[in-house]
Design goal:
Blueprint (H helix, E strand, L loop, with lengths): L1 H15 L10 E6 L9 H8 L2 H4 L2 E5 L8 H6 L5 E5 H9 L4 E5 L7 E6 L14 E4 L6 H9 L5 E4 L5 H4 L5 E5 L3 H7 L7 E5 L10 E6 H6 L1 H20 L1 H14 L6 H15 L13 H13 L23
Helix pairs in contact: 2-10, 2-11, 5-13, 10-11, 11-12
Length: 328
């Protein structure tokens, strides 16, 4: 009888004991990537859907970015706790007095590139002289213009929309592209890689790291542990997405469908594979999120020389290592 009462007591204690990770109320946070749902951000969606954020004590809402909801604006307005921004955008914002911190440089290698058709006689940088080159907006022009300066090129700049149709119809000789996105669109339009000449900026001494995770300085100071948790959970989400790519693609496609955005699984698979190439840069093939000072000053110096910022913010005031002790 005593044994039975003991077993009953143990069972009741088990039933009423809090489940690990649920003992404390989850902290509600809002995150916005700089574009709409796609495999470029698969790790964050994976972490949300598979409960990784909750395991780290966070209840994360992911907003949809893009032209209608710029992540920089929502971060500035306090409508998002965390956002992804390119390093060039983050540096420019900080130089303009916006107190944002980079707490993880997730993508440490530039995927921005120029693409040309060999049939137009473009095989080397110097072959671009006098050619029409499609460029996106201001922040996307820093690397191309530095590239033109490096090779002493005189080109005709043509505004480019977020489409490669002008390039496909010979409206420009050279197009801007992201390796994980528009370049694949060009290949899918019927071009073989051998028919194209590609200029990846990181291969020409112009590596400008892209997506990093940003938070306001005030928010970081209020709750640095929450910031660490978000970064660590996001990194875990990326690692899990790369380990289970088909499941990650399922999640991405569901989010695309939810936003009524047409997309193909083939294109999203290419994007996820290229994101793995860009993010898994540690040894052995790990995720390293520390922003390197040399990368920071390379970007900041080019922004300064291009007249986009008046002063270069100090590196120590810009980056906080949330995968380390959160103070560096």
């Amino acid at each position: 009888m005593a044994v039975r009462r003991l077993l009953l007591a143990v069972l009741m204690a088990t039933l009423i004991s809090p489940i690990p990770g649920e003992a404390e109320e989850l902290k509600k946070v809002v995150f916005i990537p700089q574009w709409v749902p796609q495999a470029q951000f698969a790790g964050y969606y994976f972490a949300q859907e598979k409960g990784i954020y909750k395991k780290h004590g966070l209840d994360v809402t992911i907003l949809s970015g893009g032209p209608q909801s710029p992540s920089l604006d929502l971060l500035k307005e306090g409508k998002a706790d965390f956002a992804t921004l390119w390093l060039s955008t983050g540096v420019q914002a900080r130089a303009q007095g916006m107190k944002f911190l980079n707490i993880a440089q997730v993508v440490r290698r530039s995927a921005l590139m120029l693409v040309a058709k060999k049939s137009r006689g473009i095989l080397t940088p110097w072959d671009m002289n006098g050619k029409k080159v499609g460029l996106w907006g201001e922040i996307f022009q820093i690397q191309p213009k530095a590239f033109f300066k490096r090779y002493d090129l005189d080109v005709k700049i043509v505004p480019q929309s977020f489409s490669v149709n002008l390039f496909l119809r010979d409206g420009v000789d050279v197009a801007s592209a992201m390796w994980y996105n528009e370049y694949h669109t060009i290949l899918s339009a019927g071009f073989d890689p051998e028919e194209l000449t590609t200029f990846l900026f990181h291969e020409h001494g112009l590596n400008f790291p892209e997506e990093g995770i940003y938070v306001s300085e005030d928010r970081f100071n209020q709750d640095p542990e929450m910031c660490k948790a978000f970064v660590r959970a996001s990194v875990e989400g990326w690692a899990a997405a790369f380990a289970s790519p088909e499941e990650a693609l399922d999640i991405v496609m569901r989010n695309l469908k939810r936003e009524y955005i047409p997309a193909t699984r083939v294109h999203q698979r290419w994007m996820l594979q290229r994101m793995a190439d860009l993010i898994l840069t540690g040894e052995p093939k790990g995720i390293e999120t520390k922003l390197l000072a040399r990368d920071y000053y390379r970007v900041a110096t080019n922004l300064h020389s291009g007249g986009l910022i008046e002063t270069i913010p100090e590196f120590a005031s810009f980056f906080k290592d949330c995968m380390g002790d959160g103070t560096k």
